[in-house]
Design brief:
Blueprint (H helix, E strand, L loop, with lengths): L17 E3 L4 E3 L6 H8 L4 E5 L2 E5 L6 H13 L5 E5 L8 E5 L2 E5 L3 H5 L6 H12 L7 E4 L22 H4 L20 H11 L26 E7 L12 H11 L3 E9 L9 H9 L2 E10 L2 E9 L3 E9 L10 E10 L2 E9 L4 H11 L14 E6 L7 H6 L4 E2 L23 E5 L3 E7 L4 H6 L5 E7 L3
Parallel strand pairs: 9-10, 15-16
Antiparallel strand pairs: 1-2, 3-4, 4-8, 5-6, 5-8, 6-7, 9-20, 10-12, 11-12, 13-14, 14-15, 16-18, 17-18, 19-20
Amino acid sequence: TQGSSAWTAPSCCAKPGTVKHKHTKIIAPVPAPESEKKDAEKPRVLVTGMGPLAHIYPPAELTGEAMEGLARDLLEKAKAPIVLVPIQGDAARRVRVYTLKGKFMLPEDAATVLGEDHPFLAEVTEDLMALCHHPNAGTVILSGWVHGQPAITFPMENGSHAGFGPNETNGFALLPADAPLGRRRPYLRPLDLRAAVLKFMGRPPDEKPADDVLTEGSSASAANPAIRIMTYNVHGCVGMDGKLSPDRIARVIARHNPDVIALQELDVCRRRSGCLDQVKLIAAKLEMNYHFHPARCVKDEKYGNAILSRYPMRLVREGVIPASNRPLTEPRGALWAEITVAGKKIQIFNTHFSIWKHESILQARSLQGAEWLKNSECAGPVVLCGDFNSMPGSAVFNAIHPALRDVQLEIEGHRPRKTLPAFYPLSQVDHIFVGSGIQVLAVDVPQTQLERVASDHLPVIADIQLDQT
């Protein structure tokens, strides 16, 4: 037509359902045949597939022979490696499993279905059960992997993933040595990495992660959690490379994620350390409470020990411990704090003994006297940490060991490790002692490149748990 972008269909081109207009062609929907309407009204089976997982939503409940027949057809005709059917209303969240080898049940037959050699058998079983019982999961779930068969994918995707076989669940991550990982398992889960990124960005996680698992086989629980203790002589935060760096000390501590830390040889406002308050800086980096006791004060400069805790903490006592009249004798001190964990009180002591044998024996006896360990306020489990400048078997060590146990001697099969000097340890002078009512779950003396350079001592770390009462 002239002067118009509309097009008028010739009358010979008109089709059923076409409404003609002078300058416009309008196509009205043609009514569907009655047979198509009836097909559309029939119940439909919905199937969603993503990589090696697929969910099937039947229009009606399937039970008994109908479910058995569907599972058999999916395995034999559709070649699905495994068919999973959640048992509805089951408090234990069990799952019925169909494979070409037979019919099984999770979690009872997990080793048969997933393989005894699966690196994360317990975790994958738990995940599968949670997946199948998710409110949005299908009535029937298919997986492209089962033990003993090649893996397949349903929709063809580049980088298809989401399976639960060893190749997909056993991965690796390259992370900085000081990555803020709060998990204490020997492996990571995606939620751990997400929480670490949020913490690094200064953002609180929007959901509470699952309880930590400190040591395989431990019985840690919310009512009686495992507690990680660290003792560390930080050498004024001056490393073996001569560099002053409280930040580096904080990184060493953060990578091991202790709950309570006993630090020795800290400077506060000393000119040699740039007039920094090292305790305050480290505690701020770790977001922990702290108490500091200066064993030596010269005007505004202070030098001493500190206890840091992520649990509520009360200072009980601080003070000097005996020294001789020897010229140039370095003052020594001790610090006693009470922490509260799950409603239970734990007495934490931190000290730094003399390098001279006769002085350190006096100091050991003093700590076991009425002012400290035998004080009436010292009730409940006791943890004594510090740099004792004494080896196992020495007179000083033996003066403490009958009443308290060295954690490095508590783990069967653990060979006690030395702590000084950090770059090539020859002496075991840093100790964590525990009293009655405490079980030692694990011990470590880490010696990576970071620990070897950050201080002249290596830290000692112990996972402990209070005995059930």
